[in-house]
Amino acid sequence: MIRHLFTLIWNRKRANFLLVAEIFFAFVVLFVLGSLLVDNYRKYTAPLGFRYEHVWEVAMDPSGQPISRQDATLQRLIQHLKTMPGVRSVASTRSNTPFAFSDSSTDFKAGSHSTNSDIYSAGDDMQDVLSLELAEGRWFTRRDEVAAHPPLVISQEARQALFADGPAVGQIVRAMDDKEFQVVGVLASSYRGRGEFQELEPAIFQRSESLVDPNDSANFDQPRLLIRVQPTATAELEQRITKEVAAVTGGWKATVTTLPEQRTIRMKFALAPMGGMVLVCGFLIFNVALGLFGVLWYNISQRRAEIGLRRAIGATGRRISGQFLGEILVVTTFGLVLGLAIAAQFPLLGVMGIRLPVYLTSMVLATALIYVLTAICALYPSMLAAQIRPAVALREE
Amino acid sequence: MENILTPTATRPHTNGTVPGVATQPVIQLRDIEKIYQTNTIETVALNRVNLTINKGEFVSIMGPSGCGKSTLLSIMGLLDEPTAGVIELDGRPVQSYSDKELAGLRNHKIGFVFQSYHLINDLSVLDNVELPLLYRPGVGGKERRERAYAALDKVGLSTRTNHFPSQLSGGQRQRVAIARALAGRPEIILADEPTGNLDSVMGEEIMELLLNLNRQEGTTIVMVTHDEQQAHKTQRLIRFFDGSQVS
């Protein structure tokens, strides 16, 4: 019967051409969208590398104070905040805080290996603030101030890129400006400061030598603090921190936000275009489904005599509906074969820069979805075909 | 070389039992009624029809258009249900049969030949002839091919197996339809005006084919026709008028 269905569809290839084309385009759209969604899902489910709950960010505007005094003011502020009830730990950082729309990257080289990595400025308490886990070595300490080479803590991706399977801790890496650093620690996993939808990329933490960039006279890269607070902390603590910043620094303006809030904003920013695409594709697929439904219904009304004949020569109603369902699945197969041939070019040509397993998953999902969609569209017309009374259908021609 | 069933002289038509043919009923209709009901009109297509078709008979049914001939053939072929009455096939009433059982009976016992051939235009001659065997469990692809070739050989179309219906003449199409009916090796062939769309020469050719099938293979044939001359070539002629058998 399968051979019969293929013969029938092949012999009707002209009539089925548009249907095959419709299924082909629907598949390609679903495959592209699916690749994006699957890729984002893969990223979303990968570990962030840090804990953002109960972490607050304090952005400060030190305008008005000479830049030469800002560093000392900030050191004093950190010590002061650490003593506040409700505060667990405080670490300084720069503008590329977790979930911020700001990033900084540079090239690093270790022997024959090199990589471009996100670079994060971190204070000695950052490990505690972000609950960073180390697989090897240690986090920064005050002793690093006198180290021969400024220390670095690197993520697993950076470790892999710079040292492959060789040892990392104690190794010297060179930045783009030929400045040498020494690796003192390796994170247990990735670090994705730009949030859940960031690719698993190398990340390197550099100890904050000075809390304020001495060359940033315009305070473009404003100093920031990350504060881990007690889980019971409320808005009242937020107000006290703001007041404390103003009191200790002599009038710096402070804005306190929480990392969960920042994360929500980042998520919305990432999800909005995806949602838009899903909506547009959903509308397209809905139209394809309606089109398929209409074409199948029309086909069946055009083939009533054939249905009558098949019933006369021994087909049951169930066989008739099975045949029409089978036919649409064969047509779908033709469309999918073409679609899969195009989809296979994506990983070969590196069209979207997505990994092969994601493409393969999307191919399987899009294929399954198209089969389900066409089967659903064919179900009702096929049932109608099965109900056609053979004597009436044969008399109609 | 084409192997059309050998033509033989036609027998004179009789209205009763055919000499040499055992009277073993294959189809029996008892008090068959068929009423088509719409919201406002009730049309009686068949009115208490009693009819027995014996094994090996070639029966023709005649009557004016709309007298219920085709309806009768549909009911005999288990394509339609009567409003009232009993149909027996080989002595067994079939009213209580399921769709699957009825489809099985149609597939194994009955072959249909229609006025407008009802060939599937997108299938080759061979594929069209194979069609009934597709619905028969246990018949593999190779056997289907062999039986289809054999059936086409019988109707003299073994050289047209890869042609499509649109490439054939009306007579050839009807021969393909007959081959399709023969491929399933049915005991009964129900032919609804098989020569109705053909010119007299082609019609004669098809009629000869049916007569030879009946005589050489003992196939029971019930044929609806408007052609008095052809009807008289069959063993029994039944006339219908307004849904009732009149002779």
From TrEMBL, chain A:
It is found in: Cell membrane. Residues 30-242 form the MacB-like periplasmic core domain. Keywords: Cell membrane, Membrane, Transmembrane, Transmembrane helix. GO terms for cellular component: plasma membrane. It is a multi-pass membrane protein. The chain crosses the membrane at residues 16-38, 274-299, 320-346, 358-380. One of its GO terms (molecular function) is transmembrane transporter activity. Residues 281-388 form the ABC3 transporter permease C-terminal domain. Pfam families: FtsX, MacB_PCD. The keyword Transport does not apply. Belongs to the ABC-4 integral membrane protein family. This is FtsX-like permease family protein. It comes from Hymenobacter rigui.
From TrEMBL, chain B:
This is ABC transporter ATP-binding protein. InterPro entries: AAA+_ATPase, ABC_transporter-like_ATP-bd, ABC_transporter-like_CS, ABC_transpr_LolD-like, MacB-like_ATP-bd, P-loop_NTPase. Belongs to the ABC transporter superfamily. Macrolide exporter (TC 3.A.1.122) family. PANTHER family: ABC TRANSPORTER ATP-BINDING PROTEIN YTRE, IMPORT ATP-BINDING PROTEIN. CDD domains: ABC_MJ0796_LolCDE_FtsE. It comes from the Bacteria. GO terms for cellular component: membrane protein complex; plasma membrane. Residues 27-246 form the ABC transporter domain. Keywords: ATP-binding, Nucleotide-binding, Transport. The keyword Nucleotide-binding applies. GO terms for molecular function: ATP binding; ATP hydrolysis activity; transmembrane transporter activity.
